Amino acid sequence: YRSLAQCHLETGKIEDALNCYNEWLKKCQTLTNYEKSEIYGYISMCYCNLNRPQEGMEYINASLDLNPFQTNAIIQKGTLHLQLGEIKTAEQMFDKAISITPEDELSDTIIGIAYSYFFMKDYSKTIQWGERILNEYPEEENNVLILLIYSHFELGNASKCLSLLGKAQNILKSNPKNNQQIKESLEEFINELRNRNDKINFNFDDIL
Q: Residue 173: what pLDDT?
């Protein structure tokens, strides 16, 4: 069930993924609380992607009831609060996620929060959290670079977007084999924006 649901998620078939997770719950009678908590989290994520935050909240609460110290689940709950327009509560969830995260895992939590704001198309907040990664954890730059490029593009910050595109290009040139993720993300970004070059006058073909 897990692999099939993941395939559906990767191809954008959210309803099919949701059905897989529900079938997993129904047919596997020997699931541990940890496994149930994990599946509830996945179901919540599906509802979030379907813009059904009330249903997503029901499942993320069930997940946290079984395992209250899951950082990813707390971030997911924050994202659902953002969908519901409950900004302050969302920020409290993100603060809670940070407060319970061990220091050596904190960068992952901050990246997760940046992705939550990006998912919600709050590009200013995405930049805020992404810049925190660049400042405090520069070794994680590859994990937020595309988010920052995209966010600055959407906000019409031409000079910053072009500067970051140049940085991504330099990273690719310096070590292309070890930066496949950036290359793939850049290709996706450029393909999406090739016909949307209305905010920044730039030849995206020069990047890759």
A: 75
- Residue 117 CB contacts under 8 Å (≥ 6 apart), including other chains: 82, 123, 125, 126, 128, 129
Question: pLDDT (tens digit, 9 = 90+) per residue, 34-46?
Answer: 999 999 999 999 9
Which two three-digit tokens encode residue 169?
A: 């290009």
Give per-residue burial for 24-40: e unless 16+ CB within 10 Å, then b: bbeeeeeeeeeebbbbb
What are the C-alpha distances in Å from 160 to residues 78, 146, 200, 204? 28, 12, 11, 15
The letter for the amino acid at 74 is I
> 121 — alpha (psi -120 to 50), left (phi > 0) or beta?
left
Q: 87 is written with which tokens?
A: 């900004």
- 15: tokens are 């309803």
Which pair of structure tokens corresponds to residue 81?
């609060």
> Going by C-beta distance under 8 Å and a sequence separation of 6 or more, which residues neighbour residue 29?
none
CA dihedral of 183, 188, 192, 194, whole degrees rounded to 10: 30
Gyration radius of the chain over CA positions: 19
